[in-house]
Each structure stands twice: as C-alpha cells, then as structure tokens.
Amino acid sequence: MPPNFPAIVRPQGLPKATVALPLPEPQHHHLPAWVRRAHGLARPILADELAALEGEPRRQLETAIAGLVAAISSGKFSQAFRYQEVVALGERLLAEHRRDSAERQRAQRALDTARRRVSDRMRDDTSRLQPEVATRLNRALRSAGDLESIAAVGAELQQAVDSARSVEDRRRDREVDKTRKRIQRAVPRGGAADQPEDWQDVLRRLQQTMRENEGESGTPVAVGTDAPRSAT
Fold it and tell me: How far apart are CA 182 and CA 176, in angstroms?
C-alpha cells in the first residue's frame, strides 16, 4: 500500500450477509496491485453493508460504490484512497436505517395497541350495537392507518354506545313507571302518603304486596298456571 493509505476497517456490529452481493470490479489494463488489494479489503465490508440496507439507503451506497469503481477504472487510481470513506458512508447509512426501522416499529406498536383497545371496547359492547353499526366500525378500525383515525373510530364507538345506553335507560324507566302504577292500583286507598321512590323501592313494594295477597288467600299464586279445580 502507498504511504498514508487510510486503513480499511470493518464497522463494529456489522452482520455477515447470508448471501454475498456482487460488487463491480475495477477494470484497467494497468491496474496497480495495491488498488486490487484495497478493493479486495473493502469489497466484503461493502457487500455486507449493502445486504443490511434496503430502499433508498441501499441505492445511495450502490451509487457511491459504482462511482468510485468507475473513477478507478478510468485511470484515477488515487481514488482508491476513498475506499474507507465509502465504507464510513455505508456505516452512517446503516445507523440511520436502524434508527428509522426502530422508530417505525415503535409507531406500529402504538398503532396496534390503540387498535386493540378500541377492538376490546367494541367486543365488550357488541350486544348494545346494531349489527350494521358494529360491522361498519370494525371495517373502519381495520382500515385506520394512524392514531387520529383510530381515535375517530373510538369516539364514534363511544357515541353509539352512549346512545344505546340512553335507549336502555328510557326503557327501564318505562318499566319502573308501569310497576309503580301496578303497585298504586294494588294498594288500598287511604294508605301511606305517596313519596318519591326509586325503582328498587318500587320493586320491594311490589314483592311485599304479592306476599300479603298470598297470605290472605292462603294459596300461593302461581303465575302462568291453571287455577285449582273444585273438588267433586
């Protein structure tokens, strides 16, 4: 090697490629032996860097390698001093690629977590949702590609569940009103003054009235069965 030739050093942690990628070779009828040696030292390192990259970072490194080899093949042998520079470029591109991959994975995990939470809520409230609403929300959740879209599906789900609960509450209130009216018809006039009651109190009053009626008749009333026949 010429004096002051920069050492070609393999980056720490660079994985060995399973399949070696082909690299262009310098072509010149007066190619010096030290250039061949420099290329031989750099070739496996650059091949492993290329194998670890993908997309635009790989194209950048391929372009740098091709430009260096083309310059040497044109007779500019001093360009071989740049082999370590290209190796360092591959190391930087690989570090950036790893950071970008880690960030994409973190973002994907956040999306998966948010989607799973909305899916769990949807599963818990399936009985309250109309089938067409549940189908539409499930389809929208699967196609949501960002946190904002998933949050929008979650908000729509909450609105649908709140609406269904409101309907259930109104239905329950109607049932309580019917039960209260039955009690009022069953209790003799002149009883205790009416006082505001919640639905639990109404149900307890109804049960008490039914027990008193059973005690007076001496025969439990069986709902939904035929009346006892007279003895012949």
Answer: 10
Average pLDDT over residues 31-37: 94
Q: Is 145 exposed, middle or buried (0-12, 13-18, 19+ CB in 10 A)?
A: exposed
- In whole angstroms, give the CA distance from residue 173 to residue 167: 10
pLDDT tens profile 88-100: 999 999 999 999 9
Contacts of 42 (CB under 8 A, 6+ apart): 8, 83, 84, 86, 87
Q: State phi, psi for 200 to the nearest 5 degrees.
A: -65, -40
CB atoms within 10 A of CB 73: 16
Question: What is the value of pTM for the model shown?
Answer: 0.58
Look-up of token digits 């960002």: 146
Residue type, 78: S
Angle, helices 131-143/83-124, rounded to nearest 10 degrees: 170
**Angstrom distance (rounded) from CA 73 to CA 31:** 8
Percent of the chain whose predicted confidence (pLDDT) is above 70: 85
Q: Can you give the three-state secondary structure of the chain, one letter per residue?
A: CCCCCCCCCCCCCCCCCCCCCCCCCCCCCCCCHHHHHHHHHHHHHHHHHHHHCCHHHHHHHHHHHHHHHHHHHCCCHHHHHHHHHHHHHHHHHHHHHHHHHHHHHHHHHHHHHHHHHHHHHHHHCHHHCCHHHHHHHHHHHHHCCCHHHHHHHHHHHHHHHHHHHHHHHHHHHHHHHHHHHHHHHHCCCCCCCCCCCCHHHHHHHHHHHHHHHHHHHCCCCCCCCCCCCCCC
